[in-house]
Amino acid sequence: MSETPEMIWQHLIAQNSGPTLTAFRWCNPGLVPGPPPAASLPAGFTLKAGVVTLASDVAMYPFTASCAAGQQRFSVLSGFSNLQAGMWVAPTAPGILPNGLQIWTLYTVDSSLLLAGVGGSPPVGGAFTANVSVTPSTPLYAVDEYPYGTLTAAVTPSTGVTIEDWNFDGANLPDPLPGNGSAMSNSGGQADAGFAVTFSEAGEYTIEVSYESADPAYSNTSSSCAVTVT
Q1: How far apart are CA 117 and CA 88, in angstroms?
Q2: Cross-strand partners of 120
Q3: How would you list the strands of the sheet with 149-156, edge to edge?
Q4: How many CA atoms lie within 13 Å of 148's alpha carbon, on the beta-carbon side?
Q5: What are the residue boundaries of the structural domains of the chain, listed by start?
Q6: pLDDT at position 211, please?
Q7: Contact 138, 93 (CB under 8 A)
Q8: How far is residue 148's CA from residue 189's CA, in Å, rounded to a whole number?
Q9: Residue ranges for the chain with pLDDT beneath 50
């Protein structure tokens, strides 16, 4: 049975277009799950929010692969079915692979190949190369530390409301371009999003953020925030 992941509101900050004035600020450095406090801001201000889903546990999946020194593509010989884009790759011995190695692309129709890279965006050119040849005698682990999927932000009522985001949603190419708050994720496939809601009219509003799972271990969930615009 799939579990419901924790949805964490990281911050809520209301500013004008300058921004020269902050009307509301709330931060959650301890990543405590649950809904945030109600926000209050004047009409015309923008409420910036950060939301992320967190796993209840960290899973590690062993797999074997081969990769020649200086190459980016791994030929996976066993354990391919457990792998997903966004997982970190951990070798069992130091010095074989660089730190921060992450699976970026899986080629399921091409002899079970995967493309790996380092950092917060897909590799470009020589952004990653294996330090030495990786052989099947060197076991690797794929580290699954967060739920995969997307977040969508919606506001009720929606009249006079504008939502923007700058996440990897696949709708705007090349990503990231300003989006409308739907299908938000980071470049590793984690449901991790920052978005901005601008309110042009006074009233009582509710922001609901919904998680759509792409991870068989986790189910869909949602969380909401109350907003008063004066």
Answers
A1: 10
A2: none
A3: 39-41, 221-229, 203-213, 149-156
A4: 15
A5: 6-56+148-213, 65-144
A6: 96
A7: yes
A8: 6
A9: 1, 120-126
pTM: 0.73
Buried b (16+ CB within 10 A) or exposed e, 3-40: eebbbbbbebbbbeeeeeeebbebeeeeeeeeebeebe
**Cα 205 to the center of its chain, rounded Å:** 26
As a dihedral over the C-alpha atoms of residue 94, residue 97, residue 99, residue 105, rounded to 10 degrees, the angle is -150
pLDDT at 125: 41
State residue 186's pLDDT score: 81
Bridge partner residues of 51 (DSSP):
9, 193
Looking at residue 121, its pLDDT comes to 47
The pLDDT score that the predictor gives to residue 126 is 44
Please name the amino acid found at residue 180.
N
Cβ neighbours for 126, distance < 8 A, ≥ 6 positions apart: none
Structure-block tokens of residue 125: 């050119």
Calpha distance 172→38 (Å, rounded)? 32
Q: Distance (Å, rounded) from C-alpha 143 to C-alpha 86?
A: 9
Pairwise CA distance, residues 71 & 127, whole Å:
10
pLDDT value of residue 38: 97
**Tokens 């009249």 — which residue?**
159
